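Hi R.,

Here are the chain sequences for the assembly we discussed:
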Amino acid sequence: MNYNERFENVTVLGAAGKMGSGILLLTAMEMYDISMKPENRDKHYILYALDISQKALSGLMTYIQDQLVKQAERKINALRENYKDRKDLAYNSEIIAQYVKDVMAMIRPVTTTESAYESHIIFEAASENPDLKTKIFAQINANSKCEPWFFTNTSSIPISYLNEKANLNGRIIGVHFYNPPAVQKLVEVIKCDQTPDIMGEFVSTYIKNLRKIEVPSYDKAGFIGNGHFMRDALYGMMRMEKLRKDMSFAEAVYIVNKVSQDFLIRPMGIFQLIDYVGIDVCQFIMKVMKPYVTDEDIHSPLLDTMMEIGVKGGQNHDGSQKDGFLKYEKGRIVAIWDLDKKEYVKIEDISEKCDKLIGALPQEHQPWKVVVKHPDKNEVLTKYFSALKRESGMGAKLAVEYHTKSKQIGEKLVSDKVAFTADDVNTVLMTGFFHAYGPINDFIK
Amino acid sequence: MQLRKKIYMVAGYNTISMGSGRKEFNPRKARPGLEEYMIEAGQAALKQIGGAKNVDECVVGNFMAARYNNQGNLAAFFPMIDEGLKYKPATKTEGACASGSLALATGIKTILAETADVVLVIGVEVQNTMKAVYGADVLAGAGWAKERKDGHAHFFPGKFSDRAGKYYEKFGYDYTRQAMATWYKNAIENARLCPTAQEFHNTTADLMSVGMTKPNGRTFVDNLNVFDCSKVSDGASAIVIVSEEGLKKCGLTPKDAVEVIGIGQAINDLTKNPDDYTKLDATTEAVKKALAMAKITKDDLATIELHDCFSMAGILAIEAIGLAPHGKGAQFVIDGHTARNGKMPINTTGGLVGWGHPTGATGVHQAVTIWEQLTGKAGDAQINIPANKPYGLTINMGGDDKTLVSIVYKKN
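And here is the predicted structure of the full complex:
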């Protein structure tokens, strides 16, 4: 079965979720491109969007249509070429509408797992729960007539564990997209010992066709992305707890968040990133990783506490941010949770005091937005970090220590055989987390 | 042919050319529409001529409000500008991107016909109501509808990309690209001197290297980059055309006015492709007629406002005017002759690439710019008008060299 044939029948599990909907969109677009090849025009392509919620599936169909319009607008030149023989389609608006119709015609929203029994590819984007995943895999595998390939979007569970538990004989591979899949360039690919090479090659072609960047990771819980992020977050929370001895909870969160964003020239501070991913998701990922990591304690009592009081972060369906450690209005941080007071404290009530404690940024500082696109990025960063090291303010000191820790985490991922190379670690942080630079660098010597 | 009466233009006004590039432009926020732009430009012109009572007739030039704004019957908008215009005669003209100049031509002919002494002319277009990918479908209406299917997704950039491709073939890519980049640089530098220009806020340091960007046919068109193109614009321009009697009636003197001494119109067959893609032959004809009527030559001109919907169109227009021989238009630009301090300053407030291109307003905008330059009202963009060359020229083009209007103006 070649690449095109395997795509004739595909199921996305958890299709209405945040990751599933993006994967469904990308896969639908790829299947459309395959179906438009002259040799495939008489074939029939089916993409099952499987989810437990009928309501969510209705929302999904609207989301996919809207996204397809946007995608079509961007690739109008190629679409006009696709439809050049259709005399009835002359205007861009007509061609875009036809494209949306043609892609939508392949998608079947369904709620019953039976549909997946016909599929050659099962794309799994269910919630990050090992028991749930293995249960569905085993059920589909036992009932399927066609020995399907399982692509899992897990961001933390070892592939070999899923393979063994669901009894898949190696027909499984980690294809870990980043949120949101339609936009983020990075895909982490994880094979277990039994995964055949042909599956890896297939996935590489798929990722290349989506114009995304593939980074391989060893089959170690958390892989590269969460391997770094979870440890980085634990470090941030540890530093916050240390500060908290001399100030309020909200002030300590403010300082660590600000230093990890502005002083480290990152797109978000560490507490904002935890909110973005979701406190619940972070807690779950740590729980998954913990048994596999013996020399570190991958666990945060603070996240447990936040969950207990019901402050969870994460995103609404429209992509807007829910309140977590920080409170957001139109994407802007307006307040910070105070664990002692059990309420949000307005930024303006604490910022003056905290900013004074943090101290000024070095003159050489340039914002993330500028650095990330700067043609001489390395030079800019080298100058900045050597200036940062000379500063004696609390913010600068904390930033230097944070930066050093981030590098250690990155290097340990290589020495622990999570990442194949230091470059892979850097690529993941730069493409999956939009960092302006990789953690393994010599900006501070 | 000769004009049988003295014709003047007075009381020019341009709104901002609104669109990407302007700091205040936000595609997600509500913006002024046709009504607001017509009111702003119309009222500003009326204020300069003693009010609506002095107006005998109105003309509005517009290309595609019917599709961009779902609005027809634009002539009946005039009383909204000023109640005093109620029950006056009014006309709407359409000739694609030359709609504005057709409005001017209509006004001129109305004065010549002696049915009016004062004609208020407005050009208006509001195009940011849809994304450019759909706007391309609308603008394709300036070409032959039956050609749409075989045309490019970006229909008009496609047309001028074809022309540029032929020019590259004949005269060389590097040479032509150098001229196109220079064209872009001049356009932006001039626009920075004019507060209403769409590129007024442009701060790009190295304009030449931006202009040299290699075209990418996968994402846009084969032979043009986006900097070769005028942008999507909203805006209006107004000017008043008067007879000698009309000038007096408005309480103005010839010093406040430019005199129209020549007009040339020419059309080409909308259903046919150009005989030679490296020439604009209808443009050549229109300019020839206008200069002949004015009894002057190109060498008498102090400045020109020409229709650079694309940098390539600008270069071809230079050759059509006769400023440079065939194939040497690019050299003329490279040598700096079209810059504001060159031997023939062209598009002194940025032209279509720099100032903006609210399609139906462009012809009127060009007239306003010449009026400003010849009456010393161009502000920071003012150029020197030599005493022995008191003339300005406009060239306004509808479609791909299909509907042309060229007008010669004289300083008083």
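The interface with chain B takes residues 73, 76-80, 87, 89-93, 96 of chain A (CB under 8 Å). Chain A is about 50% helix and 10% strand.

Let me know if anything looks off.

Best,
T.
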